[in-house]
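We give the chain.
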Amino acid sequence: MNDFLMVLAFSAAGSLTGALTGLIPGLHTNNIALLLLLLASSFKNAGLYLALFIVSAAISHTFHDIIPSTFIGAPEEDTALMVLPAHSMVIKGEGYRAISISAFSSLASIILCFILLIPFCFFMGQPLNLYDILDKNMPWILLCISLILIFTSKKLLNALFIFLLSGIFGLVALNLPTSFIMASSPLFPALAGLFGAPALLTARKGNVPPQNIEERKVKIRKRDVGSGVAAGGLVSILPGVSSAVAATLAMAVTKSRKEEDVISMLSATNTATNFFVLLALFVLLKTRSGFAIAIKKMVEIEEWNGMPTHPFNLFLIAIIISAIISYYLTKFIGKVVAKNISQISYEMLVRVSLSIILVMVFLFTGFMGLFIFTVATSIGMICIEMKVRRSLCMGFLLLPLLINYFL
């Protein structure tokens, strides 16, 4: 009984911490995981509970990071493609509905992920080992994603130009010496510039319309959640492939451009990615994220073959607890923000939002980060002017990955 109470307490605490990291642009659970890893080395027998804390925070983060993406246009890697549809819903007075759709889709993705636990183990691990086949063919998978993004655009030459421009920018930015930038990666300033700032700068002027905060039944399409979970599951097991690529993959295979459908699919992708990262740790014994690396150093990992093992069973309990808490907490915080957001003018909101993004970029990445943000914003604005879809800016990640694989 005491053990269960400890699991419950650390899972709840991790959920609240994940909410905090999700609400602060540029702060990620990987940062928290590294700090807790230091604590685990100092306190004996604390590793398991700290690992449960990290798992809960990682799941909670994927629920809450929709809020800054929606209301201030400050994306991180996981939510970059969600900025435009979510922010568009704010302009229509449907910001809270965007939050509700995202929260429900993330919760639905957790349910689907649990359903896929045994099949994932069977197909990716023993006895079929499809993981090895996917890993060997990853360059061609990425190439197909890129070609789909480009050739499904109405303005082919414009699309190719934006993809290559973003990709060349990514080649330069992602290969900067670490001494040039304060953070471990320039992803935050780059994605904030490619997706966040242009959405704010090009939106209509005037006041933010009052947001409809009435509780309405949220309807999501099963295919959107399924596509998101499939994309998150695929890229979470492969080396060098991020959740942003999972989102790009999900966007590439969908035909719907409705804002609600895009938000639903990308939210499911976001949450499923972290779920399958944990699953890959136990099924494939591979670490695909910073928080997975920390967990591997905190607890002894035994390969999971479909039968309940310790401590994997406790991690699954932590995920359930975190998902339930995060669903209701996301809706509560989203409603509070939506209720008060219309009390300021849109011009003021843009100024405040851009100021927040600039401050966070500087705090995490310094002056070089500000320069990356400026260049990225210029590319994002060019993309809008050329009237091609913004997902092509994910060439920032895709082109460097392709070159890394093929050369």
